[in-house]
Structure formats: C-alpha cells, structure tokens
Write the structure tokens for this entry.
Amino acid sequence: MSVRHTVSFAAAAAALALSASPASATIFYSNYTPSDTAASTVGVGLPLTRRTPDGAQSFDTAASSSTYCANIYCTFFYGDTVTTSFTVDSTFTASHMIVPIATVSPYGNRRSGFNIEKLEGADWVGLGFMQVESGLVPGLYEVQVAFGNSSGSTFNPAPINFEAGETYRIRTNHAAGAAGYLSWYLSDTAAADGQSYQYSTAPGAAGPLAYQPAFALTDGGALTFPANSAAPEPGTWALMLGGFLGAGAMLRRDRRRLARG
C-alpha cells in the first residue's frame, strides 16, 4: 500500500472514531452503581423506566418506611420524609435521577415526590423534582424518572443545572394519592454528620442515617455498561466497514500495478 493511501485510511479511521456516539448514559453523580439489567418503560403521563437490581446489588438496608403514611387520610404534613445532601465537584445538567425503591400502597395508587433543592446561604431553594407512582413500582426496582414540574395533571420535564462546589439535597414527600409507603434503599456510602436524615411520625423511626440513600444523576440515556463507553452505533459500524473494504480495494489495485511493473 502506498504512503498516501495509508495516511488517508488512518485519517478516515480517526474521523470515524471521533464521530462515534456514546451508546450509554452519562452518570454525572452517583453514590452507588446502578444495575445493568434490561430496563422497561412504564407509565404515560409520568414516564418512568424501571429495572430489577442485578445480582451484584443486595440493598439489604432501607431508610425504614421512608415516606410512610399511616392511614387513608395521610397528607404531606403527616408523612415521613428522608433528606440527603451532597456537594458536586463539576458543573453539569442532569435530566433524570435513578433511585432504588420498594413501594406498598394497600389502598390504591400513591405518588411520592423527590424534591431537588440547592443551599443558598441558610436557605434551601427548590429547583425541581421527580415523582414516582407506587402503582408503577410493584416491589423492589431501580427507577429512573425525569426532573420536572407539574401544572395540574401535566408533568413538564425540566433538566436541572448543578454547579461545581455547590451543595444540594434530595427531600422526599407525599405528593398525592392514597395511603401507603415507599422505602428508599441505602447505598454503601457512609453518611457524614448531618448529611442524611429521616424524619418520621412513627415512634423511634426518626434520626440520622448511617448511610446515604442510593441515587444517581444522569442524562436519561440507556444504561449499558461499562458506563460512558464510546461504542460505535450501527451506522458508524457500516461506515467503518465501508472504510475497510475501500482500503482493501486500494491495496489490491496497488499490488496489480506493482505486478505489471
């Protein structure tokens, strides 16, 4: 093969590599490793992706009855809440959050919210939230839901910008619906003093948590692992195959030219 052809092929291969789109989600911040099991999308008004935890995840510990409501008359003011704070070391815009949870709603569907708030001075300022409907999470699942805000019965997706060096927190609440409870599972990341706390109406259930509730902030892409890999898309594979075939054709032409000498 001539030098000119070698250089041209190398340049084409480099261009293809740069154009390859990531096949997996970007996980901007996480205190645990989300599952790589197959995900399914459920829900209409509030789209939600859920997956079964894989064999590497046990989630033996939950923030006990983390948004528990004792009866059908449960309201926001009587439910348990869990809060956990964290400081990010880079600036990014996340559109989704993943949390491993289990729900039980014996009297009907229940909606729980996960508010995202930013610490500004001494105050926590709301930035948006995600919601989980218990009817869409029958048992233990990891769920991925978009950030957004509600206007009546309409959910409006709204990504959140997280700034490097700033502190944020996640706070659960009872958003709407019947009685029931949601258990938010803990990661194996130890909680610092005052970082993760459970507030409860149940006797003895309130107090600081030894570990942080598990969560991950993502761009909503498909979770295939290893995360953030730049595996070529089908179209890119086709372009690369065409490049290899073209290089082979040039090599054959060079050999015939040399043979005719």
In short: DSSP finds two helices and 19 strands in the chain.
